[in-house]
Every structure is written in C-alpha cells, then in structure tokens.
Amino acid sequence: MKINMTLERYDVKSLDEVYETTKRLRKRCGTLKAVAEFLKNKLASANEEFDSSNYVRVNEASEDFVKKMNLMEQELLELGESCYQLAEKLNELWS
Question: Rounded distance, CA 92 to CA 71, Å?
C-alpha cells in the first residue's frame, strides 16, 4: 500500500504520525506472528490429543493467520516507506 504523492491532499503535520503508526503496527504484527508460531509449535506437540479433523482445521487457521500477518507487515512497510519518500519530496521542495 503506497501513500498518494499528491501534495495538495495532505496535512504535512500528520505525515510523521502516519509513519510512526505504521512502525508501531509492524512491530505488533511481528509479535502476533511470534505468538502464532508458538501456538503452531504447541499444536504439533499436542497432535495426539486432537481429533484429526479438528487438528487440521486449527493448523490451517494458524497457517492462514501467519500468512495474513506477513502480508500486513509487508503492506505497512510499503506504506511507511512511501511516507518517508513523501517527506523527502517535501524537504526537497522546501529547500
């Protein structure tokens, strides 16, 4: 996800806030991914305790969650980079 680079559309004061928020959200994505990986590892060790169809569903759900967190992390990284690029563009214009 990239930010719109049309300068007339932004309040420049809020750009830093958007950038910082994307950094915080990316960090939270990393935490959620770590928790999902931990749960996945616990599932593997408890495989005998599950009915096979339930185990498969839970395992698929945890894999899907990790994929979604990876995608979200990538989108937030792209958004943060575009905020940085817009800030650089503004700095060049103001110099």
Answer: 32
